[in-house]
Amino acid sequence: MSELTRRQVLGQIATGTAAVIGLGTGGWLAAGVGPAVACVRPPGALDEDDFLATCIRCGRCADACPNRCIVGFTEETGREVSMRPGAGQRGTPVIFPRRQACMLCNGVPGDTLRCTAACPTGALSPVEKTEEALGNVDMGLAEVDQHLCYSFNGASCGVCVRSCPLEGTALRAGLWERPEVDPDACIGCGLCERSCVHYPQAIRVRPRGDIV
Amino acid sequence: MSKLHVTRRTVQVLVVVFMLLIPVLARYQNYVAAREIDRVLERWSGTAAGGVLQAVDTTMRALPGAEKERAGRVQRDRAQVLEYAQLARGGPWSATVGPVSMTDPLGAVESMVASRALPWVLLASLLVPLAATLLLGRIFCSWICPVGFLLELTDKMRGAMRFLEIRPRDLKPSRTTKYGVLAAGLVLTAVLAIPVLGYVYPPAIVGREAHDVVFAFFDRAEMGRFGPWAGGLSWMALLLVAIISFEVLVSRRWWCRYVCPGGALYSLIGWARPVRVKLQSDRCTQCALCVAACPEGLNPMKNQMGMECDNCGECVASCGDDALAFGFDGPLIDVLRPSEREVHAESKQ
């Protein structure tokens, strides 16, 4: 082996340090600020652990979303809804229904949901826009807070029921327009939460990973 | 200025243009699909954001079949326009252009290592990058990578530094370091079961920052603020600043030659590439212009065009004696045509 010059040694030290700092930054960004939090993923997503391992954070699904409801999960995007990315969640696609909910590509051409067709890794598997396939989507489950909901407190409202794409099955209007959620039919698109006129929202989507 | 050099620069500029155009298209798609784009255009007319959106809209409507007549008025064919708006997506990390899906092999390998699975979509997305790299070597680095382009441009700043009486260093550590970085990154990815390298891989960062800057531009417009903007960049952009400062002050093409894990992977994949620069030693006059021209710091006069060469063609362009040219060579060709080698050996005797 040839003799190392001072320049080579210095260069090697600088490069090694930079590499360690770079990889450390990567690891630190991946580690996040605490345990992973439950959040609404785009349709067709793998289970959270597999999703975090498979997704390469390329943002193609976010580019593809016609309703711009999919955003990268960062401190900046989460701030609006007081959420922070936990372990491994930084940069992953997430839906904050209060901000913008999934409209299931309604009125948009194509046979599959656009985000699922855009995913290069299989973290989102293609969901066809048939009644059956859409019915099998499971992003979360809507939950009504009866203490907040107008219809449970003397004023009939029913806005969420009207906004539901599966109105009549997933969300039904009961007496005084009270929303009734069918847990088997609800797919967690979040349009009810988005449309709720009460603040804080009386109907909210509980993310799939958070349902006990 | 040789033709090869101009072609490469054109491709590099096109990549940057696409990188900025893709988030604009994403916003345009949103305004068509879920907003009333005509009212957005009306409200924004005369502003920069309005101008950009109008330009995209005019281009879209000029495409075949994008307009139709209804009730005596020419309108956008909404479905067709939405079809066009999804033609390009993503960034240098992973993108679709038309029907072709392409993912950086580093991203694919990371996803595979972390999830221990190789789905068909990922394999399909690897097809074009893998084929190109197997055939042509590290051409991503020299022809596509926006960071490589940026570093080539900032290379010129070394002259400015000398003018300011600051002597730029040119440290030359070992090229094998980057393979170590790649290995360490993949181990970290496997241990955490999270693709880690994508967070700090410069082309991926540039793609994300480009999105953020363009989105900030439109977000401001939506809030009625149309002035100049400087927002959207995250602090990850500082990593790019650090890389550029190192490039200018410490070591030429430092990141690409010694550190980049993506470059390392491309080198490994393109190890046996059949297309490479070949030297005709009888024509070479040892003028060493090619040595000065090589961005990777190799010596084409010694014919060391191994896996570190990224086939940028700068040496070919710089050679005044026609001693360097692209041709077929390498281990793969040797295996395929052993007879020619024997013939060559015989003719030498």
Instruction: Quickly count the helices of chain B.
Output: 19
Helicity level of chain A, as a percent range? 25-40%
Instruction: Round the mean pLDDT of chain B to the nearest integer and report it.
Output: 87
User: Low-confidence spans of chain A: pLDDT under 50, at least 5 residues?
Assistant: none
Shape of chain B: globular
The end-to-end span of chain A amounts to 63 Å
Question: What does it look like?
Answer:
The complex is a heterodimer of chains A (212) and B (349). Chain A is of the alpha+beta class. Chain A has one domain (11-206). In chain A, 30% of the residues lie in helices and 10% in strands. Chain A has eight helices and six strands. In chain A, strands 1-2 form a two-stranded antiparallel ribbon. A two-stranded antiparallel ribbon of chain A has the order 3-6. With 349 residues, chain B is mostly helical. Helices cover 60% and strands 8% of the residues of chain B. In chain B, the strands form three sheets. A three-stranded antiparallel beta sheet of chain B has the order 3-4-5. Chains A and B meet through helix 1, helix 2 and helix 3 of A and helix 1, helix 4, strand 4, helix 5 and helix 6 of B.
Question: What descriptive keywords fit this protein?
Answer:
heterodimer; A: 212 residues; alpha+beta; two-stranded antiparallel sheet; B: 349 residues; mainly alpha; three-stranded antiparallel β-sheet; two-stranded antiparallel ribbon; 7 strands; globular
Write the layout of secondary structure elements.
The complex is a heterodimer of chains A (212) and B (349).
Chain A lengths: L5 H26 L16 H7 L5 H5 L5 E3 L2 H5 L13 E3 L18 H5 L12 H5 L4 E5 L14 H5 L7 E3 L5 E3 L9 H5 L7 E5 L5
Antiparallel strand pairs in A: 1-2, 3-6, 4-5
Chain B lengths: L2 H32 L2 H8 L3 H15 L4 E4 L2 E4 L1 H8 L2 E3 L3 E4 L2 E4 L1 H11 L4 H17 L2 H6 L1 H9 L2 H7 L13 H16 L4 H4 L1 H21 L14 H13 L4 H6 L1 H9 L5 E5 L9 H5 L20 H5 L5 E5 L2 H6 L1 H11 L1
Antiparallel strand pairs in B: 1-2, 3-4, 4-5, 6-7
